[in-house]
Amino acid sequence: MKLKYSYLIIFLFACTTVFSQQLKSPSGTLEMNFSLNEKGQPLYDLTLSGKAVILPSTLGLDLKDEDTDLKDGFEITNTETSSFDETWEPVWGEESKIRNHYNELAIELTQGSTRRKVILRFRAFDEGLGFRYEFPLQENMGYFVISEELTQFAMTGDHTAFWLPGDYDTQEYDYTTSRLSEIRGLMQGAITGIASQTPFSETGVQTSLMMKTRDGLYINLHEAALIDFPAMHLDLNDETMVFTSHLTPDAQGDKGYLYTPTSTPWRTIIAGESAGDILASRITYNLNEPSKIEDTSWIKPMKYVGVWWEMITGQSSWSYTNDFKAIKLGETDYESARPNGIHGATTENVKKYIDFAAEHGFDGVLVEGWNVGWEDWFGNSKDYVFDFLTPYPDFDLEGISAYAKEKGVQMVMHHETSSSTRNYERHMDEAYALMNEYGYPAVKSGYVGDMLPRGEHHYSQWMVNHYQYAFEKAAEYKIMVNAHEAVRPTGVARTWPNLIANESARGTEYQAFGGNKANHVTILPFTRQIGGPMDYTPGIFVMDVHNGSHVNSTIANQLGLYVTLYSPLQMAADYPENYDRYPDAFQFIKDVALDWEKSVYLEAEPGQYVTIARKAKETGEWFIGNSNGLMARTGDVSFDFLEAGKTYTAQIYADRSDAHFKDNPQVYAISEIEVTSDFVLKQFSAPGGGYAIRIIEK
Q: What pLDDT, on a 0 to 100 scale, did the predictor assign at position 198?
């Protein structure tokens, strides 16, 4: 393996360079070198503080039905350099202000044989690099089809990677941790038991991809501003350790349909000498455009409960009847249909959740299974599956809305599309108007199952455009969107902050489908959350659930997730009666903030542990969350983020010494201590455990 890899390095440097230019980040710690070799082929490499991050890697694209692809034969016709420095305020986020500071190099390439022009634009931040392909308006290039993107990321060695199989339709896997050279052999085991499309290759993985080098450098590969383009995967040559971009195909096998002027999404490389550097990076957001919503006053973080976990665990049902034969909306007599006896979205049951939310200060209540169509919604390739308007007979839409308003609680609408996107777009205006009529400020949309149109994929250009259409349309109605099963986020929420959350990964629901790995939540902050917040739906207190599955977590771990897995939309997912069993632990969920002024990444190691401190925007209180992996550990946590000279009270919710995610998950200890900025806490975390701390100035 080492001999083959060394050969690659020699080959790349043997190609004669006919042009080269250097780009450094504002502090000079990050350095990108661009070159054209003797074949007119563009290459780049990247170093951080003198350490190689990316070895010389080629750039280019294959075009469909073209004699000459956009990968060589280029000459430099123009270069421009610039610098940019701004501080902007997100509508919601992990901090109240974000600095966007980079140096930029734009290189115009003209292909000699075709006279087609491509601009390669690089932005160097102190913590990483973003680059993209731009295609200006030009005579020799109008409409074109991409067969494949040829962007390379040449690794410096056989890194440890935290990866998901390169599936075109889902990220709902547990992460596999392995060396890059082991991915091929482990791929089949990773996809066992997942009902989804076949991954694109035996060595393909999804972004955001997190890696660690043997000498302790942390590297993350992802993309930003995924708009009107297919999602990027990474195909690994495990002999040379070179990743090559692989775009999600459409039903015809094509990758992207473009018209000049246009550009690709940004390809991002985040690098740091500590794992916390990756978590602190805001490159993904900074490479997106500013908000296009002028008045954002209606976009507000929410903490909610809901009629959901009881369905996920099999205690109640989404559907109203036991009759699962094919139905047609508008032709089925639900009034006379035989109820199934366990329908969850009944007026009586929903009011119980509204009462619970009002009593404990929650903002909203989600209700799934309220609308007709659930009897044959899944797996039937059915176009007209839901109308998103018609409630079941036992769900009083008007009465529930009035009751919630009386109690000071907002309702969260649920739109499951069954991946029939044409049907959703057909009804979208009416559905959003109905939400306005009954006072629903947010919608949870779902895309379960194979796509309609048939053959499309969840991450293809066609579907990426659908998701974009959905939340832009929602913005017209002042509705916040929480999309499940959608394409993984890429910072687009900066531009459209009503995209308040996504699922797009393996969430808590899988704890009822056999369980997640106990260290899953120590990897998500480095991978899925690089692109935006996740609606993970934490807060499970009773681990042996109704359908016989077991939640691989302790109660203290569940509390810590409200800090470590950032989202401005947070659910207390368990049954209300389970919170009544543990009212002292539930108090933290009630107290924890949703929107932050500042975040400090105290200690982190992907797959092992994450400890984050955050300062609440409105109250100024600090909260600390810890998520721990498979091994028990005691961490040293410095409180030097607190203001010097002041004294604080720390309320600590922690694993008891005998806690364990499998054998003893529900034991915890609550204590209160006095702390100052020079205090160092030694805190135990159990296997699959963690802790949560609320810090109040005295």
A: 60
Of 229, 256, 286, the residue at which a domain comes to its end is 286
* DSSP secondary structure, 433-496, as one string: HHHHHHT--EEEEE--SS-BSTT--TTSHHHHHHHHHHHHHHHHTT-EEEESS-PPP-SGGGT-
Q: Are residues 307 and 255 in the same domain?
A: no
Backbone angles phi and psi of 129, in degrees to 5: -130, 140
Instruction: Indicate the pLDDT class of residue 17, thresholds 50, 70 and 90.
Output: low
Nearest to 105 by CA among 149, 156, 44: 44
- CATH number at 560 reads 3.20.20.70
pLDDT at position 615 over 60: yes
Residues 312 and 271 grouped into a single domain:
no
Q: Are 228 and 368 found together in one domain? A: no
| Residue of 127, 368, 509, 603 with catalytic role | 509
Q: How confident is the model at residue 381 (pLDDT cuts 50, 70, 90)?
A: confident
pLDDT tens-digit map of 534-549: 999 999 999 999 889 9
In a shared domain, residues 112 and 260: yes
What range does the domain containing 189 cover? 2-286
Provide mean pLDDT across the span 668-686. 98
Catalytic annotation present for 202: no
Residue 202: its pLDDT value, please?
A: 74
Q: List Cβ neighbours of 327 (8 Å cut-off, separation of 6 or more).
A: 373, 375, 376
Whether 604 is covered by a domain: the verdict is no
Please give the pLDDT value at position 161. Answer: 98
User: Which of 595, 626, 651 is the endpoint of a domain?
Assistant: 595
The mean of the pLDDT values for the chain is 94
Supply angle C-alpha 332, 336, 342, rounded to 5: 95
Domain co-membership, 93 together with 216: yes
One domain for residues 366 and 322: yes
Q: Are 95 and 593 in contact (CB under 8 A)?
A: no
Identify whether 688 is part of a domain. no
Tokens at 473, concatenated? 């349309």
The distance of Cα 121 from the centroid of its chain, to the nearest Å, equals 25
Can you give the pTM of this predicted structure? 0.95
